[in-house]
Design brief:
Rossmann fold, 4 domains, eleven-stranded mixed β-sheet, ten-stranded mixed β-sheet, elongated, disordered N terminus, disordered C terminus
């Protein structure tokens, strides 16, 4: 069979196989019937014996191949069809997907565009807002508060650090956001408003309202020239009730207005000096730098200009308009247009018209045009209604009542010294900052030389901050100098206890370490005592300086190596020292003169403060000699008369101060005020701050507590003092007891000793029961040491001694010292003298000690009754008279001779007269009188006609017949009275 489609094939030779296998490929199985079992290929022997077998086989193979190819073709065709279907499906799916992707992309692009548009719009809006905020902020900085708010906001005034330079008149039309239309005014030359009368007047009226809403009234003056007498600014008249100088009556004629303008120019010159001295360029900047208003802003309003303006006034107005920004003058011209033509018949002065800087405003009924603002229209603010103006004035009144001026904290002035305390040396001077002059410190220097500024006068009217200034001085010095460098002696003559803060607190701690003596509500006697003590210290230093040939404190410290502190004596309301009892006054004048003249060389300085310096009669002859040693003069606000009395004649600047805490300091005896006056602001000594500062200094180092003398309180009797006294008295002869605290610079109580001699008795005279009880209590309590194991007999003329609360302490002390106490009723008192005292007086010697205390002696009975102590005794003969003693004669003998027999007497009487009735003329036997509430004549009957009153209360006077004069003592408080007591 012929092979019409011979199949090309190739032979593959396999190395190592039989040639026959490699030359003839093995037969292939037809794929047509894969399930048919393969036939066994014919062997070579079959092919050789049957030649057609190869052909048949090939044919069969060809058929099989065809069938296989056909099957494959069909399968391929199926796959192709399936592939085509898949491709169609894929093509459709792809197209849909692409369409969706395109749509999605379009949507996303649109969303991005919309978002971008929105973002751009937002950024634009934000930029607009920022721009608007920036514009508002810029405008607000130009015209803050009342200067730039809508008219309705003027009902809420507010004081600012400085007046705004710009004022609002309306809103800008055709400008994005319609911002406020602001024009420069304060610190500039002024406005000239022309056009519609009602609108022109309203602009001026509103401008005035904005100014007074910003500035404290005492720093602004409104001067109005109203030639037509229209009274259009009469709504501001209530300002006169708050401060008359703020709105004086308007001027209506040329002569009155000429005087006003002259005064305005004079004030402008004063303002210029203040501003220039502070290094500022404008009036407003001066206020900002200073931190408080100073000077006065003059607002001049000229209505119906140019009516009534002559050449003289025109010249003055031209000068006022031409003033620079440092002068504090604002001029407002109102030139309304008149019906039918010109503003008036008066010719407009050309020099005023040509003044540079005057802002011109042309107004209609609702709009205005401003010169130098081309193509800009201003929509005017609505009028300021009467109700709005009334509300504004009410608000100003409230603010004025609450406004006490600017304040400066002491911590901001002495902070550096507080952070590093006690680093100063007092060898040359004491330097302290008490406030500020603008941004600079207000310094005071107490110094011996270069230049000599040893002493200072300080004054001010009531409520102006004098006490606060003294606190600044004391705490400022205490923070810078240690107690080894500085000592304070502080006297407070006011009724208030301003200096009490320098003493210990309620826990007995935290006193100011530098204070040695603290006098509270002091009286003349203690004032003299302190002056004498400081004078004695000066004399002591004089002797020390001579040893080293030193002429000053600095030289002494350098040559001796000893740190001798400076002494500062501060006396508040010092004029009290020079009033009243002549004996005290003369001594005060002499001591003050000596200290003022000589003290500086020895480091002793005086700081005298008072509300008034004028009219101190006692200093009439000595004022120049004393105050000539006070180069430092510092005054708070005061009257013109007091300003001159404190500073110097003609120096009235203290009367021109405006706020509490403002001061004038002059370091040249108050002279040459134009050059030497320094004006500043004192710091406020916050109570909490100074308490903490004092505590900090006390914890750093403190010595003994200050010696405190309170002028209107009893002295405090310390149980430790009583114990020490009684312990010492047991070893002494005589009978010793305490009476009170001496009015002197000492912490040692006043003691008295009755010796074992004649005329040693003590008489307490007076009807003041509290004073008598106080002295009696102290005497009995502190006599126990001398009476140890002895006897105390009380003749109770009052009959109520055992009911006294304080007597229980006496009983307790008697038990401790084994003292027998016996109380004798007033009916038996004279018999006791006859039966128990007389034998002691007649005995040769009494070892045991007895104290007889007679309370209310004038009430004792049976004084004139005879007491025959030994009836068995008969006269030697009938011609000899044997005297039988009476109760009174026994009492007199006890008073005269009792101490010799170790029987001491202490008696109380209501008056000197009743004592004289019992004891006889001139009170024989009394060695010491104690006065308790006696009048001047009674005191002089005891101490002499030159004696003065016992100074102060509670006080008792001591008249020791062994010496001269009257000594004042502060009695100790009764236990349980709430004034003091024993523990």
């Amino acid at each position: 069979m012929t092979n019409t489609n011979p199949r090309r094939s190739r032979r593959i030779h396999i190395e190592g196989a039989d040639r026959e296998w490699t030359e003839q490929a093995p037969p292939r199985m037809s794929p047509a019937d894969p399930s048919r079992a393969p036939e066994t290929p014919p062997s070579s022997a079959d092919r050789e014996t049957n030649p057609s077998l190869n052909e048949v086989e090939r044919q069969r193979q060809i058929d099989d191949n065809k069938r296989a190819a056909l099957d494959q073709s069909r399968a391929l065709s199926g796959r192709i069809s399936a592939a085509r279907r898949s491709l169609d499906s894929l093509r459709i799916a792809t197209a849909n997907s692409d369409e969706r992707a395109v749509n999605s992309s379009r949507k996303k692009a649109a969303a991005r565009q919309a978002q971008a548009a929105r973002e751009a719009q937002r950024r634009f809006a934000e930029s607009q807002d920022r721009l608007g905020d920036a514009v508002v902020a810029a405008l607000g900085s130009l015209a803050p508060g009342p200067a730039g708010c809508p008219v309705s906001g003027l009902a809420t005034p507010g004081h600012h650090l400085a007046p705004a330079e710009y004022q609002r008149i309306g809103l800008l039309q055709d400008v994005v956001g319609a911002p406020a239309a602001l024009l420069p005014l304060v610190g500039h030359h002024g406005w000239k408003v022309t056009g519609d009368r009602a609108s022109a007047v309203e602009i001026v009226r509103t401008a005035v309202a904005r100014i007074i809403a910003q500035i404290p009234l005492r720093h602004v003056a409104l001067h109005v020239f109203d030639p037509r007498i229209t009274g259009v600014l009469g709504g501001f008249a209530p300002l006169r009730q708050l401060n008359a100088a703020t709105f004086p009556a308007p001027s209506v004629d040329a002569r009155a207005f000429e005087e006003v303008l002259s005064a305005v120019l004079t004030r402008a010159a004063q303002n210029a000096e203040l501003v220039t001295a502070n290094g500022a360029s404008s009036f407003a900047e001066h206020w900002r730098r200073l931190g408080n208003p100073q000077g006065c802003l003059s607002v001049v309003v000229v209505l119906d200009y140019p009516l009534g303006i002559d050449d003289r006034i025109s010249s003055l107005l031209t000068r006022a308009v031409a003033l620079g920004p440092a002068n504090g003058v604002v001029v407002l011209f109102c030139e309304p247009s008149q019906p039918g033509g010109s503003a008036g018949s008066t010719k407009v002065p050309s020099d005023l018209e040509m003044s540079k800087g005057l802002r011109r405003i042309e107004v209609g009924r609702t709009q205005a045009a401003v010169a130098d603002w081309p193509d800009v229209v201003v929509e005017l603010d609505p009028p300021l209604t009467d109700g709005m103006l009334t509300g504004l004035l009410a608000g100003i009144e409230e603010v004025e009542n609450d406004w006490h001026g600017p304040s400066l904290e002491l911590r901001d002035v002495i902070g550096a010294d507080v952070d590093s305390p006690w680093t100063g040396s007092a060898a040359e001077s004491l330097d302290v900052s008490v406030g500020r002059i603008g941004k600079e410190k207000l310094d005071i220097s107490l110094r011996t030389a270069n230049p000599p500024h040893p002493n200072m006068l300080l004054g001010g009217a009531v409520g102006q901050g004098k006490s606060n200034l003294l606190l600044d001085l004391v705490y400022g010095l205490a923070a810078r100098y240690s107690p080894q460098e500085l000592e304070f002696y502080l006297l407070d003559f006011k009724r208030g206890l301003e200096f009490k803060r320098f003493d210990a607190d309620s826990s007995g701690e935290s006193w100011l370490p530098h204070v040695r003596v603290l006098g509270l509500e002091s009286n003349h006697a203690f004032g003299v005592a302190v002056l004498q003590h400081v004078h004695d210290e000066m004399e002591r230093r004089s002797r020390m300086f001579k040893q080293y040939n030193a002429g000053s404190l600095a030289e002494f410290r350098a040559r001796s190596g000893e740190i001798l502190p400076r002494v500062v004596l501060v006396v508040d309301e010092f004029h009290v020292l020079f009033e009243g009892d002549e004996n005290y006054v003369d001594r005060c004048v002499a001591l003050t003169e000596a200290l003022a003249k000589q003290g500086r060389a020895y480091g002793v300085h005086l700081v005298f403060a008072s509300q008034t310096v004028s009219g101190i009669r006692a200093l009439a002859a000595k004022a120049d000699a004393i105050f000539g040693q006070f180069p430092l003069r510092l005054s708070l606000k005061n009257t013109a008369a007091e300003s001159q009395a404190l500073l110097s004649q003609g120096n009235k600047e203290a009367a021109e101060l405006t706020y509490r805490g403002e001061v004038v300091l002059n370091r040249n005896f108050g002279m040459n005020p134009d050059e030497d006056n320094v004006r500043g602001l004192c710091a406020y000594a916050d109570p909490e701050y100074v308490v903490q500062l004092q505590r900090t200094l006390w914890l750093r180092e403190h010595g003994a507590r200050p010696m405190v003398f309170v002028g209107t309180e009893y002295a405090q009797l310390d149980a430790r003092v009583v114990a020490r006294h009684n312990a010492a008295a047991r070893r002494q002869t005589g009978l010793t007891f305490l009476l009170g605290r001496p009015v002197a610079v000492t912490d040692q109580p006043r003691a008295h000793t009755m010796l074992d001699d004649s005329d040693q008795s003590v008489a307490l005279l007076g009807a003041d029961d509290e004073l008598v009880s106080s002295v009696l209590f102290t005497t009995l309590l502190t006599a126990m040491g001398s009476l140890a194991s002895g006897r105390l007999v009380i003749l109770d003329g009052r009959g109520d001694l055992e009911q006294k609360d304080w007597f229980t302490h006496v009983l307790r002390a008697a038990q401790e010292f084994d003292v027998e106490i016996e109380i004798i009723d007033r009916d038996d008192a004279m018999r006791f003298l006859a039966e128990e005292v007389l034998p002691r007086l007649d005995a040769d010697r009494c070892i045991d000690r007895m104290l007889v205390v007679s309370v209310g002696t004038q009430r004792l009975k049976h004084k004139d009754e005879q007491f025959d102590c030994d009836p068995s005794l008969e006269a030697a003969d009938e011609y000899t008279y044997r005297e039988i003693p009476t109760g009174r004669t026994l009492l007199r003998r006890l008073v005269r001779e009792g101490a010799i027999a170790n029987t001491f007497f202490f008696g109380t009487w209501a008056t000197p007269r009743t004592a004289e009735e019992d004891l006889g003329m001139n009170w024989p036997g009394i060695g010491l009188f104690i006065t308790a509430g006696l009048g001047l004549e009674d005191v002089r009957s005891l101490a002499g006609h030159s004696a003065g009153r016992v100074d102060g209360s509670p006080r008792v006077g001591l008249v020791d017949r062994a010496t001269e004069g009257l000594e004042t003592v502060v009695p100790f408080a009764l236990v349980g009275t709430g004034i003091g007591g024993l523990m």
